[in-house]
Amino acid sequence: MKNDRFEQALRESERKYRTLVENLNEVVYMLNERAEITYITPNIESFSGYTVEEVTGRRFTDFVHPEDLHQRMERFRNAYSGKNQATEYRLLKKNGEVAWVRTSARPIIEDGRTLGVQGVLTEITDRKVYEEKLERQFACSRALNRILDTIISEEHSEPVLDTIVEVMGKTLQLDRALIYEIRFEEQLAIGLSEWLNPDCPDLDPSIGSYPLSSLGEGTAWMLTTRQYLESHADQIHPNLVDGGFAGILHDRMKIKSLLWHPFAFHDDGFYILVFNQVRYRRQWTREEFEFLETLNRQVHLAMQKLAFLKDHKVAREQLYRSEKKFRGIFENAPLGIFHFDSNGVITECNDNFMRIIGSSRNRLIGLETLRLPDPEMVTALKTVLSGKKTSYEGNYQSVTADKITPVKVSFEPVVSEDGKVQGGIGIVEDITERRKAEESIRKSLEEKNILLSEIHHRVKNNMAVISSMISLQSEFFHEGKDTAEIFKITQSRIRSMALVHELVYENDNFTEIGLDRLLHQLTGNIKRIYQPNGRSIRMDIKTEEIRLNMNDSVPFSLYVNEVISNAFKHAFHGREHGVITVQLTRKEDGCQVVIGDDGCGVTDLAMLDRPKSLGFTIIHGLVTQLRGRLEITPRNPGLQLSLWIPLDRSDNPSGSGEPAGS
After folding, report:
1. Cα separation, 639 vs 597, whole angstroms
2. Which of helix, strand or coil describes residue 157?
3. Among 297, 390, 407, 510, which lies 20 to 30 A Cα-Cα from 119?
4. pLDDT digit string (tens) for 493-522?
5. Phi and psi at residue 372, to the nearest 5°
6. How far apart are CA 7 and CA 483, in angstroms?
């Protein structure tokens, strides 16, 4: 008979713990020594689209992004050997989408033998997307700066074009990047430069000159629409199909995704930035197209400069004195540009420079830069007037406007053919957004560290609370008491604590919690646990909008749990119906929660002040911790408990949130 009771208790315990595990937000899994999934929690379906049956028995590598397989197998072997290390990688969902996850695992050891690994999986896609977006912004900014520096410093087309395709390929993580010139009069597509990703050793160079007829209607369509052309192996652009060029691109060259981005249109044609992806299908993002628009202006600037040098073959002095050619480059530049003579006097500036500095052209032209109060800026100007390139980065205080702007300035000397320095050019970039992005990353890291510390502190405190309650429960345990009932009581208390944290994290507020919402959800949970079968106990709840600090919210929820649980367990013996009322109001410098029932009541109120039961022992301890005032009043019928607690807890010396006596 005892064995039957023991097995029944064991089954009930197993069911309780299974319920707790399977209701976690994270996915819990187990793998055997062959990396096959032997157990996984049911929430894997909402997480990935796969059911438990679809993944059980399969190797976990079946669901890992191909580029992360090597790393994941290495981490599996480390976990199997006892080296626990958190890992971030990409997981493939059933619908083909990619999700970023974080996992940590440890070995499963039984009788000294390692049977596999057990781990926890958490989705971090939103965080990764945010980090990748910031990194892309930084990468694009660095790429544009490098291209602009090359355009300024180089006078020959080859290094400029080679730098452009290399920077494009690396920044956009392409497999192949090219620049073509389209000439309609000659009916040719002429390759100017090509970059191949070294991680794709099987790629063959494809640059060359091709008749426009072999490109289908694609070039004519771009000339008419002035739009980019995008084509995929499984979704071919119609203007490529008509000409048969799709077979060459998608079949023979194995290109899964391509993008032709036209720019610099002129009377006889235009230029095209060509991007190829052969390892996987690619969907171009809005941020990438914005980068390309800026890049097009820079490449256009490079083409104008190179064409000018090729057509005229004149010295740099003649180039900058030529008003028509200079202003075409000058005004179309995406950054601020100003020119100064050999005495450091500004002779010209573009609109972007005026916008960045925050001043008008009239106030800037004629400004003597060597008299500026910023010593670092003056040093940079003297350096460039000595014939050397230099740069300046800092918070520039304008002398012509009440404005401070974070800027990066690249200086280039203007030198005549006989080697005489005639002045210089300053290329000005407003780096305010870059600074904000860097500050955002710094604050994000600080917030994560604070959150980690807060989580550690609260987990430690809650473990102490759970330990104290179990210890108290063991003191009140006696033979014959229903083990399932003990687990139900403990589950209710732990669930009350967990509910506080759920509500805090849902609202992104780690300091306060709304008691009205807490009471409604808390009473609902208690009712689901204790509602007797075939009987109806009604809850009547009236609350005001009151917020309580995080440290007091846990003991407050435990107090409400104990009072209402006691009412469910003891107030309605022999009755089919009953009512439990809960009323929360603001009183004086605090708030008051009144909980009553219309049950059988208590004949000896003095017994409740000197309780022998664990429930009222906990209640009195929690009242003391909350620094509250408790009044127990008989009703006809039933019993009523009225608790007042202060809302201003600045005098709390500990602020730990731990229960009295823990």
Report:
1. 6
2. helix
3. 510
4. 676 666 666 665 566 555 778 888 888 888
5. -65, 145
6. 12
**Selected residue with higher pLDDT from 148 and 10:** 148
Q: Are strands 269-277 and 257-266 parallel, antiparallel or unpaired?
A: antiparallel
Distance CA 362, CA 131 (A): 43
Tokens of 141: 């900014």
CA distance 14 to 168: 58
Q: What is the mean pLDDT of residues 38-64?
A: 88
Please give the pLDDT value at position 656.
41
Work out the end-to-end distance of the chain between its first and last CA atoms, rounded to an integer number of angstroms: 38
Q: Which residue has the tokens 């009242």?
A: 623
What is the DSSP annotation of 445-457?
A: HHHHHHHHHHHHH
Cα–Cα separations (whole angstroms), residue 634 to 596, 605, 608, 639, 645: 9, 8, 12, 5, 21
Report how far residue 62's alpha carbon sits from residue 93's, in angstroms, rounded to the nearest whole number.
11
346: its two tokens: 């500004």
Q: Identify the CA nearest to 620 among candidates 586, 599, 643.
A: 643
Residue type, 309: L
The first and second tokens of residue 613, run together, are 């039961």
Residues 161/177, Cβ–Cβ less than 8 Å: no
List, in order, residues 6 or more apart from 476 with CB less than 8 Å away: 613, 614, 617
Please give the pLDDT value at position 194: 92
CA pair distance 46, 93, nearest whole angstrom: 10
Q: Are 462 and 497 in contact (CB under 8 A)?
A: yes
Give the residue carrying structure tokens 């994270």: 26
CA max distance for the chain? 112
Contact 635, 621 (CB under 8 A): no
Instruction: Tell me the Cα Rg of the chain.
Output: 36
Q: What angle do CA 405, 406, 410 make, to 5 degrees?
A: 110
**Using CA atoms, how far apart are residues 16 and 37, in angstroms rounded to an integer?**
23
Which amino acid, 323? Answer: E
CA-based nearest residue to 554, from 488, 516, 596, 504: 504
pLDDT digit string, tens, across residues 137-175? 677 677 777 777 777 777 677 888 888 888 888 888 899
The C-alpha atoms of residue 331 and residue 316 are separated, in whole angstroms, by 18
Residue 60: name the closest of 103, 13, 7 by CA.
103
pLDDT value at position 661?
A: 35
d(CA 415, CA 421): 4
Strands 257-266 and 229-232: antiparallel
Q: Could you tell me how many residues make up the chain? A: 662
- Which CA distances in Å does 120 have to 102, 103, 387, 610? 8, 6, 61, 46
Q: Kindly report the backbone phi and psi dihedral angles of residue 534, in degrees, each rounded to the nearest multiple of 5, phi listed first.
A: 75, 5
Q: Decide if 12 contacts 55 (C-beta within 8 A).
A: no
- Let me know: does 228 contact 262? Beta carbons within 8 Å: yes
Q: Say which residues have a Cβ less than 8 Å from residue 85's Cβ, sequence separation at least 6.
A: 75, 78, 79, 104
Amino acid of residue 637: P
Distance CA 439, CA 459 (A): 30
| Whole-angstrom distance, CA of residue 365 vs CA of residue 34 | 74
Strands 188-196 and 590-597: unpaired
Q: Which helix (H) or strand (E) holds 23?
A: none
- The mean of the pLDDT values for the chain is 78
Cis-peptide, bond into residue 637, ω within 30° of zero: yes
